[in-house]
Amino acid sequence: MIWRSGYHRRIAQLADFGTAFISFVLAYFISALLHRMEPSLFPPQVEIRTSYILIVIVLSMVYEILFDQQKAYSYQRFTSLLREYSIVMKVCFIGSLISISVLFLFGSKDIPRTIFIIFFIVSLFLFIAEKSLLFYAASLIRRKGRDRKRVILIGTGTRARNFITTVKNNFHWGLDIVGMLTGDIENVGLKIEGIKVLDHYKNIQHILKTVNPEEIIITISTKRFDQIRDVLEICEREGVAVRLNSDFFGHITKNVTIDNLFGLSIISFNMVRQPEMELFIKRIIDIAGSLAALIIFSPFMVVAAIGIWISDGKPILYHWNVIGINKKPFKSWKFRTMVKDADKLKERLMTENEMDGPVFKIKDDPRIIKFGKWLRKWSIDETPQLFSVLKGDMSLVGPRPAGPHELERYDSWQRRKLSIKPGITCLWQINGRNQIRKFDDWVKLDLEYIDNWSLLLDIKILLKTIPSVILGRGAS
Protein backbone atom coordinates (compact mmCIF):
# COMPACT_ATOMS: atom_id res chain seq x y z
CA MET A 1 0.00 0.00 0.00
CA ILE A 2 1.21 3.53 -0.78
CA TRP A 3 0.00 5.11 2.49
CA ARG A 4 0.34 4.05 6.09
CA SER A 5 -1.14 0.85 7.48
CA GLY A 6 -4.59 0.54 9.00
CA TYR A 7 -7.18 2.90 7.54
CA HIS A 8 -5.42 3.55 4.22
CA ARG A 9 -4.57 -0.13 3.86
CA ARG A 10 -8.26 -0.96 4.00
CA ILE A 11 -8.97 1.72 1.39
CA ALA A 12 -6.43 0.12 -0.95
CA GLN A 13 -7.89 -3.36 -0.38
CA LEU A 14 -11.40 -2.08 -1.07
CA ALA A 15 -10.16 -0.32 -4.22
CA ASP A 16 -8.52 -3.52 -5.46
CA PHE A 17 -11.67 -5.54 -4.78
CA GLY A 18 -13.82 -2.97 -6.59
CA THR A 19 -11.44 -2.77 -9.55
CA ALA A 20 -11.42 -6.55 -9.97
CA PHE A 21 -15.22 -6.75 -9.73
CA ILE A 22 -15.72 -3.89 -12.21
CA SER A 23 -13.24 -5.56 -14.58
CA PHE A 24 -15.36 -8.72 -14.64
CA VAL A 25 -18.53 -6.70 -15.27
CA LEU A 26 -16.96 -4.59 -18.04
CA ALA A 27 -15.47 -7.68 -19.69
CA TYR A 28 -18.94 -9.23 -19.80
CA PHE A 29 -20.60 -6.21 -21.42
CA ILE A 30 -17.71 -5.54 -23.83
CA SER A 31 -17.88 -9.16 -24.95
CA ALA A 32 -21.65 -8.78 -25.52
CA LEU A 33 -21.09 -5.56 -27.48
CA LEU A 34 -18.45 -7.20 -29.69
CA HIS A 35 -20.84 -10.06 -30.40
CA ARG A 36 -23.48 -7.62 -31.64
CA MET A 37 -20.89 -5.90 -33.83
CA GLU A 38 -19.38 -9.08 -35.27
CA PRO A 39 -21.38 -12.25 -34.41
CA SER A 40 -19.16 -14.48 -36.54
CA LEU A 41 -16.04 -13.69 -34.50
CA PHE A 42 -17.45 -13.26 -30.99
CA PRO A 43 -19.82 -15.85 -29.44
CA PRO A 44 -23.01 -14.79 -27.65
CA GLN A 45 -23.00 -14.12 -23.92
CA VAL A 46 -24.44 -16.60 -21.43
CA GLU A 47 -27.25 -15.69 -19.09
CA ILE A 48 -26.14 -14.12 -15.80
CA ARG A 49 -26.67 -16.51 -12.90
CA THR A 50 -26.49 -16.00 -9.18
CA SER A 51 -23.73 -18.59 -8.95
CA TYR A 52 -21.63 -16.61 -11.46
CA ILE A 53 -22.01 -13.44 -9.40
CA LEU A 54 -20.89 -15.26 -6.24
CA ILE A 55 -17.88 -16.70 -8.08
CA VAL A 56 -16.92 -13.23 -9.35
CA ILE A 57 -17.14 -11.84 -5.81
CA VAL A 58 -14.87 -14.63 -4.54
CA LEU A 59 -12.41 -14.08 -7.41
CA SER A 60 -12.35 -10.35 -6.67
CA MET A 61 -11.32 -11.24 -3.11
CA VAL A 62 -8.63 -13.52 -4.56
CA TYR A 63 -7.10 -10.46 -6.22
CA GLU A 64 -6.73 -8.88 -2.77
CA ILE A 65 -4.83 -11.98 -1.65
CA LEU A 66 -2.60 -11.87 -4.72
CA PHE A 67 -1.77 -8.20 -4.13
CA ASP A 68 -1.03 -8.99 -0.50
CA GLN A 69 1.34 -11.81 -1.54
CA GLN A 70 3.18 -9.30 -3.75
CA LYS A 71 3.55 -7.07 -0.63
CA ALA A 72 1.38 -4.37 -2.22
CA TYR A 73 -0.06 -3.45 1.20
CA SER A 74 3.20 -3.43 3.15
CA TYR A 75 5.33 -0.38 4.00
CA GLN A 76 5.63 1.41 0.66
CA ARG A 77 6.84 4.96 1.31
CA PHE A 78 9.86 4.17 -0.86
CA THR A 79 7.76 2.80 -3.70
CA SER A 80 7.64 3.91 -7.34
CA LEU A 81 5.02 3.73 -10.06
CA LEU A 82 7.24 1.29 -11.95
CA ARG A 83 7.11 -1.11 -9.01
CA GLU A 84 3.33 -0.65 -8.73
CA TYR A 85 2.90 -1.43 -12.44
CA SER A 86 5.14 -4.49 -12.15
CA ILE A 87 2.96 -5.85 -9.33
CA VAL A 88 -0.19 -5.16 -11.36
CA MET A 89 1.11 -7.11 -14.36
CA LYS A 90 2.00 -10.12 -12.21
CA VAL A 91 -1.30 -10.10 -10.35
CA CYS A 92 -3.39 -9.68 -13.52
CA PHE A 93 -1.62 -12.56 -15.24
CA ILE A 94 -1.86 -14.94 -12.29
CA GLY A 95 -5.39 -13.78 -11.46
CA SER A 96 -6.59 -14.40 -15.02
CA LEU A 97 -5.21 -17.96 -14.93
CA ILE A 98 -6.93 -18.59 -11.59
CA SER A 99 -10.20 -17.12 -12.90
CA ILE A 100 -10.16 -19.39 -15.95
CA SER A 101 -9.41 -22.43 -13.80
CA VAL A 102 -12.12 -21.65 -11.23
CA LEU A 103 -14.87 -20.97 -13.77
CA PHE A 104 -14.13 -24.17 -15.70
CA LEU A 105 -13.75 -26.13 -12.48
CA PHE A 106 -17.30 -25.18 -11.54
CA GLY A 107 -18.59 -26.39 -14.89
CA SER A 108 -18.94 -22.98 -16.51
CA LYS A 109 -17.79 -24.22 -19.90
CA ASP A 110 -20.51 -22.26 -21.68
CA ILE A 111 -18.71 -18.97 -20.93
CA PRO A 112 -16.94 -17.71 -24.10
CA ARG A 113 -13.16 -17.93 -23.97
CA THR A 114 -12.87 -14.47 -25.48
CA ILE A 115 -14.23 -12.97 -22.26
CA PHE A 116 -11.04 -14.05 -20.43
CA ILE A 117 -8.84 -12.22 -22.94
CA ILE A 118 -11.04 -9.13 -22.64
CA PHE A 119 -11.00 -9.42 -18.85
CA PHE A 120 -7.19 -9.57 -18.74
CA ILE A 121 -6.86 -6.43 -20.88
CA VAL A 122 -9.58 -4.53 -19.00
CA SER A 123 -8.25 -5.48 -15.54
CA LEU A 124 -4.70 -4.54 -16.55
CA PHE A 125 -5.73 -1.04 -17.61
CA LEU A 126 -8.09 -0.48 -14.67
CA PHE A 127 -5.56 -1.62 -12.06
CA ILE A 128 -2.87 0.58 -13.63
CA ALA A 129 -5.29 3.51 -13.50
CA GLU A 130 -6.21 2.72 -9.89
CA LYS A 131 -2.61 2.43 -8.70
CA SER A 132 -1.67 5.64 -10.54
CA LEU A 133 -4.57 7.47 -8.88
CA LEU A 134 -3.61 6.21 -5.40
CA PHE A 135 0.06 7.03 -6.00
CA TYR A 136 -0.57 10.61 -7.06
CA ALA A 137 -3.24 11.09 -4.38
CA ALA A 138 -0.75 9.99 -1.71
CA SER A 139 1.93 12.27 -3.19
CA LEU A 140 -0.47 15.23 -3.21
CA ILE A 141 -1.54 14.62 0.38
CA ARG A 142 2.08 14.46 1.55
CA ARG A 143 3.06 17.57 -0.38
CA LYS A 144 0.33 19.41 1.52
CA GLY A 145 1.91 18.37 4.81
CA ARG A 146 -0.36 15.48 5.77
CA ASP A 147 0.55 11.81 6.35
CA ARG A 148 4.19 12.75 6.90
CA LYS A 149 6.54 10.83 9.18
CA ARG A 150 9.17 12.30 11.53
CA VAL A 151 12.41 10.31 11.43
CA ILE A 152 15.87 10.55 12.97
CA LEU A 153 19.00 9.25 11.28
CA ILE A 154 21.75 7.47 13.16
CA GLY A 155 25.02 8.09 11.40
CA THR A 156 26.71 11.08 9.76
CA GLY A 157 28.75 9.44 7.03
CA THR A 158 28.38 9.11 3.27
CA ARG A 159 25.42 6.74 3.54
CA ALA A 160 23.57 9.23 5.75
CA ARG A 161 24.30 12.09 3.34
CA ASN A 162 23.06 10.04 0.38
CA PHE A 163 19.90 9.12 2.29
CA ILE A 164 19.16 12.77 3.09
CA THR A 165 19.67 13.80 -0.56
CA THR A 166 17.42 10.99 -1.78
CA VAL A 167 14.65 11.90 0.67
CA LYS A 168 14.82 15.56 -0.36
CA ASN A 169 14.54 14.56 -4.02
CA ASN A 170 11.50 12.41 -3.19
CA PHE A 171 9.39 14.73 -1.07
CA HIS A 172 6.31 12.64 -1.90
CA TRP A 173 7.65 9.87 0.34
CA GLY A 174 6.42 11.95 3.26
CA LEU A 175 9.57 11.67 5.39
CA ASP A 176 10.73 14.60 7.52
CA ILE A 177 14.25 14.13 8.87
CA VAL A 178 14.16 16.06 12.15
CA GLY A 179 17.71 15.36 13.26
CA MET A 180 20.74 13.09 13.29
CA LEU A 181 22.61 11.15 15.97
CA THR A 182 26.33 10.46 15.77
CA GLY A 183 28.96 8.18 17.25
CA ASP A 184 31.54 11.01 17.16
CA ILE A 185 30.88 13.54 19.91
CA GLU A 186 32.73 16.30 18.02
CA ASN A 187 30.01 16.24 15.33
CA VAL A 188 27.24 17.21 17.77
CA GLY A 189 25.79 20.61 16.85
CA LEU A 190 26.96 20.51 13.24
CA LYS A 191 24.60 20.59 10.27
CA ILE A 192 24.98 17.94 7.57
CA GLU A 193 23.05 18.51 4.34
CA GLY A 194 20.95 21.01 6.31
CA ILE A 195 20.07 18.53 9.07
CA LYS A 196 21.31 19.19 12.62
CA VAL A 197 23.29 16.58 14.54
CA LEU A 198 21.34 16.51 17.82
CA ASP A 199 23.40 14.26 20.08
CA HIS A 200 25.46 11.11 20.50
CA TYR A 201 23.37 8.00 19.86
CA LYS A 202 24.10 6.71 23.37
CA ASN A 203 21.57 9.36 24.48
CA ILE A 204 18.84 7.89 22.25
CA GLN A 205 16.38 7.51 25.15
CA HIS A 206 16.49 11.26 25.87
CA ILE A 207 15.99 12.05 22.17
CA LEU A 208 12.97 9.72 21.94
CA LYS A 209 11.32 11.61 24.82
CA THR A 210 12.11 15.14 23.68
CA VAL A 211 11.86 14.88 19.87
CA ASN A 212 9.26 12.08 19.61
CA PRO A 213 10.36 10.62 16.26
CA GLU A 214 8.11 8.02 14.63
CA GLU A 215 11.02 6.04 13.21
CA ILE A 216 14.76 5.63 13.59
CA ILE A 217 16.77 4.97 10.44
CA ILE A 218 20.24 3.53 10.95
CA THR A 219 22.77 4.45 8.25
CA ILE A 220 26.07 3.44 9.88
CA SER A 221 28.28 0.62 8.65
CA THR A 222 27.80 -2.87 10.06
CA LYS A 223 31.35 -2.63 11.37
CA ARG A 224 29.97 -0.43 14.15
CA PHE A 225 26.83 -2.42 14.89
CA ASP A 226 28.17 -3.63 18.21
CA GLN A 227 28.08 0.01 19.35
CA ILE A 228 24.34 0.47 18.78
CA ARG A 229 22.96 -2.66 20.40
CA ASP A 230 21.57 -0.47 23.19
CA VAL A 231 19.86 1.73 20.59
CA LEU A 232 17.94 -1.24 19.21
CA GLU A 233 16.92 -2.42 22.67
CA ILE A 234 15.73 1.05 23.74
CA CYS A 235 13.73 1.55 20.52
CA GLU A 236 12.13 -1.86 21.01
CA ARG A 237 11.21 -0.96 24.58
CA GLU A 238 9.79 2.41 23.48
CA GLY A 239 7.88 0.88 20.56
CA VAL A 240 9.67 2.98 17.93
CA ALA A 241 10.23 1.36 14.52
CA VAL A 242 13.83 0.97 13.34
CA ARG A 243 14.84 0.69 9.70
CA LEU A 244 18.27 -0.19 8.41
CA ASN A 245 20.10 1.37 5.47
CA SER A 246 23.12 -0.92 5.61
CA ASP A 247 25.98 -2.30 3.55
CA PHE A 248 25.59 -5.69 5.26
CA PHE A 249 23.52 -7.32 2.51
CA GLY A 250 25.45 -5.83 -0.40
CA HIS A 251 23.49 -6.08 -3.67
CA ILE A 252 21.28 -9.03 -2.70
CA THR A 253 18.75 -7.29 -0.45
CA LYS A 254 15.84 -8.13 -2.73
CA ASN A 255 16.45 -11.83 -2.06
CA VAL A 256 16.80 -11.68 1.73
CA THR A 257 14.21 -13.29 4.01
CA ILE A 258 14.15 -13.32 7.82
CA ASP A 259 12.45 -16.12 9.76
CA ASN A 260 12.14 -17.05 13.40
CA LEU A 261 12.26 -20.83 13.83
CA PHE A 262 11.82 -22.15 17.38
CA GLY A 263 13.44 -19.03 18.79
CA LEU A 264 16.26 -19.01 16.22
CA SER A 265 16.56 -15.91 14.02
CA ILE A 266 17.45 -17.12 10.53
CA ILE A 267 18.45 -14.73 7.74
CA SER A 268 18.36 -16.40 4.31
CA PHE A 269 20.22 -15.06 1.28
CA ASN A 270 18.62 -16.45 -1.88
CA MET A 271 20.73 -15.89 -4.95
CA VAL A 272 17.65 -16.02 -7.19
CA ARG A 273 14.07 -14.81 -6.80
CA GLN A 274 11.85 -17.58 -5.43
CA PRO A 275 8.23 -16.37 -5.33
CA GLU A 276 6.28 -19.54 -4.57
CA MET A 277 3.12 -18.61 -6.46
CA GLU A 278 4.98 -17.62 -9.63
CA LEU A 279 7.15 -20.75 -9.51
CA PHE A 280 3.99 -22.83 -9.12
CA ILE A 281 2.49 -21.15 -12.21
CA LYS A 282 5.77 -21.68 -14.07
CA ARG A 283 5.59 -25.40 -13.26
CA ILE A 284 2.00 -25.56 -14.53
CA ILE A 285 3.10 -23.86 -17.76
CA ASP A 286 5.97 -26.37 -18.07
CA ILE A 287 3.65 -29.36 -17.69
CA ALA A 288 0.94 -28.01 -19.99
CA GLY A 289 3.45 -26.67 -22.53
CA SER A 290 5.55 -29.84 -22.70
CA LEU A 291 2.45 -32.04 -23.07
CA ALA A 292 1.10 -29.81 -25.85
CA ALA A 293 4.47 -29.71 -27.59
CA LEU A 294 4.87 -33.51 -27.39
CA ILE A 295 1.44 -33.92 -29.02
CA ILE A 296 2.21 -31.36 -31.74
CA PHE A 297 5.69 -32.69 -32.46
CA SER A 298 4.85 -36.40 -32.15
CA PRO A 299 4.58 -36.93 -35.97
CA PHE A 300 7.95 -35.23 -36.46
CA MET A 301 9.45 -37.31 -33.64
CA VAL A 302 8.26 -40.50 -35.34
CA VAL A 303 9.80 -39.32 -38.62
CA ALA A 304 13.02 -38.44 -36.78
CA ALA A 305 13.24 -41.88 -35.16
CA ILE A 306 12.63 -43.68 -38.47
CA GLY A 307 15.06 -41.38 -40.31
CA ILE A 308 17.89 -41.97 -37.82
CA TRP A 309 17.29 -45.73 -37.84
CA ILE A 310 17.34 -45.91 -41.66
CA SER A 311 20.32 -43.57 -42.16
CA ASP A 312 22.60 -44.70 -39.32
CA GLY A 313 20.93 -47.50 -37.39
CA LYS A 314 20.55 -47.65 -33.61
CA PRO A 315 20.61 -46.09 -31.05
CA ILE A 316 17.90 -43.59 -31.91
CA LEU A 317 18.34 -41.48 -28.79
CA TYR A 318 21.47 -39.94 -27.36
CA HIS A 319 21.58 -40.24 -23.57
CA TRP A 320 23.59 -37.49 -21.95
CA ASN A 321 24.31 -36.61 -18.36
CA VAL A 322 23.30 -33.06 -17.51
CA ILE A 323 24.00 -30.84 -14.52
CA GLY A 324 20.71 -29.43 -13.22
CA ILE A 325 19.58 -27.01 -10.55
CA ASN A 326 22.05 -26.60 -7.67
CA LYS A 327 24.55 -28.72 -9.63
CA LYS A 328 22.56 -31.95 -9.23
CA PRO A 329 23.10 -34.34 -12.18
CA PHE A 330 20.28 -35.99 -14.12
CA LYS A 331 19.93 -37.93 -17.36
CA SER A 332 18.27 -36.41 -20.40
CA TRP A 333 17.78 -37.37 -24.03
CA LYS A 334 18.12 -36.01 -27.51
CA PHE A 335 17.67 -37.55 -30.91
CA ARG A 336 21.07 -38.76 -32.04
CA THR A 337 22.34 -36.50 -34.81
CA MET A 338 25.99 -37.62 -34.84
CA VAL A 339 27.88 -40.80 -35.66
CA LYS A 340 27.96 -43.43 -32.92
CA ASP A 341 31.54 -42.72 -31.78
CA ALA A 342 31.11 -38.94 -31.79
CA ASP A 343 32.41 -38.50 -28.24
CA LYS A 344 35.68 -40.29 -29.09
CA LEU A 345 36.15 -38.25 -32.28
CA LYS A 346 35.62 -35.05 -30.32
CA GLU A 347 39.09 -35.28 -28.78
CA ARG A 348 40.67 -35.17 -32.26
CA LEU A 349 38.66 -32.07 -33.21
CA MET A 350 39.32 -29.98 -30.09
CA THR A 351 41.82 -27.77 -31.93
CA GLU A 352 39.03 -26.69 -34.30
CA ASN A 353 36.71 -25.54 -31.51
CA GLU A 354 35.16 -22.18 -32.46
CA MET A 355 33.80 -21.40 -28.98
CA ASP A 356 35.83 -19.48 -26.46
CA GLY A 357 35.30 -21.46 -23.27
CA PRO A 358 34.32 -24.96 -22.06
CA VAL A 359 31.67 -25.48 -24.77
CA PHE A 360 32.64 -27.33 -27.96
CA LYS A 361 31.22 -26.16 -31.32
CA ILE A 362 32.57 -26.20 -34.84
CA LYS A 363 30.93 -25.23 -38.09
CA ASP A 364 30.09 -28.14 -40.41
CA ASP A 365 30.95 -30.67 -37.70
CA PRO A 366 32.06 -33.83 -39.62
CA ARG A 367 30.48 -36.04 -36.94
CA ILE A 368 26.94 -34.96 -37.84
CA ILE A 369 25.07 -37.42 -40.06
CA LYS A 370 23.17 -36.04 -43.07
CA PHE A 371 19.76 -36.62 -41.56
CA GLY A 372 21.02 -35.11 -38.32
CA LYS A 373 21.63 -31.75 -40.05
CA TRP A 374 17.95 -31.56 -40.92
CA LEU A 375 16.95 -32.44 -37.35
CA ARG A 376 19.22 -29.74 -35.95
CA LYS A 377 18.08 -27.07 -38.38
CA TRP A 378 14.50 -27.36 -37.18
CA SER A 379 15.47 -28.21 -33.56
CA ILE A 380 13.69 -31.59 -33.80
CA ASP A 381 16.67 -33.20 -32.05
CA GLU A 382 15.77 -31.24 -28.89
CA THR A 383 12.18 -32.53 -28.61
CA PRO A 384 12.94 -35.57 -26.36
CA GLN A 385 14.03 -33.04 -23.71
CA LEU A 386 10.34 -32.27 -23.31
CA PHE A 387 10.16 -35.48 -21.27
CA SER A 388 12.75 -33.99 -18.90
CA VAL A 389 10.53 -30.91 -18.60
CA LEU A 390 7.53 -33.10 -17.86
CA LYS A 391 9.55 -34.99 -15.27
CA GLY A 392 10.63 -31.74 -13.61
CA ASP A 393 14.38 -31.91 -14.25
CA MET A 394 14.19 -29.11 -16.81
CA SER A 395 11.95 -26.17 -17.65
CA LEU A 396 10.70 -24.87 -20.98
CA VAL A 397 12.65 -21.66 -20.32
CA GLY A 398 15.94 -21.59 -18.47
CA PRO A 399 19.73 -21.40 -18.86
CA ARG A 400 21.49 -23.71 -21.28
CA PRO A 401 22.10 -27.19 -19.77
CA ALA A 402 25.69 -27.99 -18.77
CA GLY A 403 27.60 -31.22 -19.09
CA PRO A 404 29.81 -32.51 -16.24
CA HIS A 405 32.95 -31.98 -18.31
CA GLU A 406 31.92 -28.37 -18.93
CA LEU A 407 31.22 -27.62 -15.27
CA GLU A 408 34.79 -28.52 -14.33
CA ARG A 409 36.01 -25.66 -16.56
CA TYR A 410 33.50 -23.04 -15.41
CA ASP A 411 34.82 -19.89 -13.75
CA SER A 412 33.38 -19.14 -10.32
CA TRP A 413 30.94 -16.47 -11.54
CA GLN A 414 29.69 -18.75 -14.34
CA ARG A 415 28.50 -21.41 -11.90
CA ARG A 416 25.62 -19.19 -10.75
CA LYS A 417 23.72 -20.12 -13.92
CA LEU A 418 23.13 -23.51 -12.27
CA SER A 419 21.11 -21.95 -9.45
CA ILE A 420 17.85 -22.55 -11.37
CA LYS A 421 16.53 -25.33 -13.63
CA PRO A 422 18.11 -25.55 -17.10
CA GLY A 423 15.75 -24.97 -19.99
CA ILE A 424 15.10 -25.86 -23.61
CA THR A 425 15.11 -22.21 -24.65
CA CYS A 426 16.25 -18.93 -23.14
CA LEU A 427 17.73 -15.57 -24.13
CA TRP A 428 20.63 -17.31 -25.88
CA GLN A 429 18.15 -19.08 -28.16
CA ILE A 430 16.32 -15.98 -29.35
CA ASN A 431 19.56 -14.00 -29.67
CA GLY A 432 21.06 -16.36 -32.24
CA ARG A 433 22.71 -19.15 -30.30
CA ASN A 434 25.22 -20.11 -33.00
CA GLN A 435 26.19 -16.50 -33.64
CA ILE A 436 27.53 -16.32 -30.07
CA ARG A 437 31.19 -17.36 -30.06
CA LYS A 438 32.26 -16.35 -26.55
CA PHE A 439 31.07 -18.57 -23.74
CA ASP A 440 31.18 -15.57 -21.38
CA ASP A 441 28.56 -13.82 -23.53
CA TRP A 442 26.41 -16.96 -23.44
CA VAL A 443 26.57 -17.10 -19.65
CA LYS A 444 25.88 -13.37 -19.32
CA LEU A 445 22.60 -13.91 -21.18
CA ASP A 446 21.73 -16.74 -18.77
CA LEU A 447 22.53 -14.56 -15.74
CA GLU A 448 20.53 -11.69 -17.24
CA TYR A 449 17.57 -14.07 -17.42
CA ILE A 450 18.08 -15.19 -13.79
CA ASP A 451 18.34 -11.62 -12.47
CA ASN A 452 15.27 -10.41 -14.38
CA TRP A 453 13.12 -13.55 -14.27
CA SER A 454 9.36 -13.21 -14.36
CA LEU A 455 6.46 -15.12 -15.87
CA LEU A 456 6.07 -12.38 -18.46
CA LEU A 457 9.71 -12.79 -19.50
CA ASP A 458 9.16 -16.55 -19.89
CA ILE A 459 6.15 -15.95 -22.13
CA LYS A 460 8.06 -13.38 -24.17
CA ILE A 461 10.93 -15.85 -24.73
CA LEU A 462 8.54 -18.68 -25.65
CA LEU A 463 6.73 -16.48 -28.17
CA LYS A 464 10.03 -15.38 -29.74
CA THR A 465 11.30 -18.98 -29.82
CA ILE A 466 8.41 -20.18 -32.01
CA PRO A 467 9.39 -18.16 -35.13
CA SER A 468 13.05 -19.00 -34.53
CA VAL A 469 12.22 -22.71 -34.66
CA ILE A 470 9.81 -22.42 -37.60
CA LEU A 471 12.30 -20.41 -39.67
CA GLY A 472 15.26 -22.51 -38.50
CA ARG A 473 17.18 -19.44 -37.30
CA GLY A 474 20.31 -19.82 -35.21
CA ALA A 475 20.37 -23.66 -35.27
CA SER A 476 22.96 -25.88 -36.87
What secondary-structure arrangement, pairings included, does this model have?
Layout: H1 7-37, H2 50-69, H3 81-105, H4 114-143, E1 149-154, H5 158-169, E2 175-182, E3 191-192, E4 195-200, H6 204-211, E5 215-218, H7 229-238, E6 241-244, E7 256-261, E8 264-269, H8 276-312, E9 317-323, E10 329-335, H9 342-349, H10 370-377, H11 385-391, E11 395-397, H12 404-407, E12 423-425, H13 427-430, H14 439-451, H15 455-470
Parallel strand pairs: 1-2, 1-5, 2-4, 5-6, 11-12
Antiparallel strand pairs: 3-4, 7-8, 9-10
Helix pairs in contact: 1-2, 1-4, 2-3, 3-4, 8-10, 8-11
String of helices and strands: HHHHEHEEEHEHEEEHEEHHHEHEHHH
- Dominant shape: flat
What is the spatial order of strands in the main beta sheet?
3-4-2-1-5-6
Count of helix runs:
15
Number of β-strand runs: 12
- The average pLDDT is 81
Distance between the termini: 51 Å
Number of domains: 3
What portion of residues belong to β-strands? 5-15%
Round the Cα radius of gyration to an integer and report it: 29 Å
Described by strand count, sense and barrel closure, the largest sheet is: 6 strands, mixed
Give the uncertain stretches in residue-range form. 1-5
**Estimated helix fraction:** 40-55%
The computed structural class is alpha/beta
